[in-house]
Design goal:
2,3-Dihydroxybiphenyl 1,2-Dioxygenase, domain 1, 8-stranded mixed β-sheet, alpha+beta, binds zinc ion, single chain, globular
Length: 318
């Protein structure tokens, strides 16, 4: 079993599918690579954004529950997620956010990198970290952001926790992360590879109240595992360490196991395969509603419940 190679995807909650699409596609230049439904609640979309093909380490997914009340960030959850941008693109992104009237904080310095901090339409905290760490992505050439400035997949997530040690032990002992340093109340851990989504930061907030779940909350974060065999090895290892891990769930584009780490954050371990081209071609990604075969007989009923959306999938011809 290899050490975890980094983040696979991040799943969060939104309140309006169209506002979510407009922001992630038009402002951040992420491609809508899959339109499907929440498999546990098929009257709600599950929207996936990423690079051109939704490479692991670029995939951000949302459950847009219409009218969902807003969450409140607190302890026991992922309190921010960060994309990497090239170091030389910091000024370009500042101009881009200002031109879109998006209020941001920063740039602030964190572990030597410049960081911009802002919120998505539901108040989820997003950061752009200007970093020259290598990150290979498959650029979405039809998207609105020039390749030289495009997001380079995830840089990190920040977990807000009352206690550091129990959560750090799971990262290090169970998932193979390495502690790389501390800055103020922030402890940084690094995954084994040298590419996207390498860092987990723990912010130590001993007195913070628990978060309240809602729109803008990050529901869970998923770690990459290479295949089903390795995933089962992780399942056994995590259970042997006393963690309550689910059985393997078929998520159509990957297979998943879930567990809550000691600080309260929901973790998933997801396989890289089969990926988003399992049921549509690269050119077609995201362009129509995909349903797993067990929901196909209910397609008409499901489509009737879903809001009409404009996918903004292709570059406007201006
Ligand atoms: Zn997930």
């Amino acid at each position: 079993m290899e050490r975890i190679q980094g983040l696979h995807h991040i799943t969060a909650v939104a309140s309006d599918p169209q506002a979510n699409i407009d922001f992630y596609v038009e402002v951040l230049g992420q491609r809508l690579v899959k339109t499907t439904v929440n498999f546990d609640d098929p009257g709600t979309y599950h929207l996936y954004y990423g690079d051109e093909v939704g490479t692991p380490g670029t995939a951000l997914t949302f459950f847009p529950w219409r009218g969902m009340h807003r969450g409140r960030v607190g302890a026991g959850e992922t309190s921010a997620m960060a994309y990497a941008i090239p170091k030389a693109s910091l000024g370009w992104w500042i101009d881009h956010l200002m031109a879109r009237h998006i209020t941001f904080e920063g740039p602030i310095k964190r572990f030597g990198d410049s960081v911009l901090r802002f919120q998505d339409p539901d108040g989820m905290v997003l950061e752009l970290v200007a970093s020259d760490d290598p990150a290979t992505i498959q650029h979405w050439a039809d998207g609105p952001i020039p390749e030289e400035h495009a997001l380079r997949g995830f840089h990190s997530v920040t977990l807000l926790l009352n206690e550091v040690t129990p959560s750090a032990e799971v990262l290090v002992d169970q998932l193979g992360y390495e502690f790389v340093g501390q800055e103020d109340d922030r402890y940084r851990f690094r995954a084994a590879s040298n590419d996207r989504g390498l860092y987990i930061d723990i912010r130590h907030a001993p007195d913070a109240a628990r978060g309240a779940f809602g729109a803008g909350s990050i529901h869970h974060i998923a770690f990459r595992t290479v295949d089903d065999t390795e995933q089962l090895e992780y399942l056994d290892k995590l259970r042997a360490a006393g963690l309550q891990v689910t059985t393997v769930q078929d998520r159509q584009y990957f297979h998943s196991i879930y567990f809550r780490e000691p600080g309260g954050v929901l973790y998933e371990v997801a396989t890289d395969e089969p990926g988003f081209t399992a049921d549509e071609s690269v050119a077609e990604l995201g362009s129509s509603l995909k349903l797993p075969e067990w929901y196909e007989p209910r397609r008409a009923e499901i489509e009737a419940k879903l809001a009409t959306i404009e996918r903004k999938s292709f570059k406007p011809a201006n």
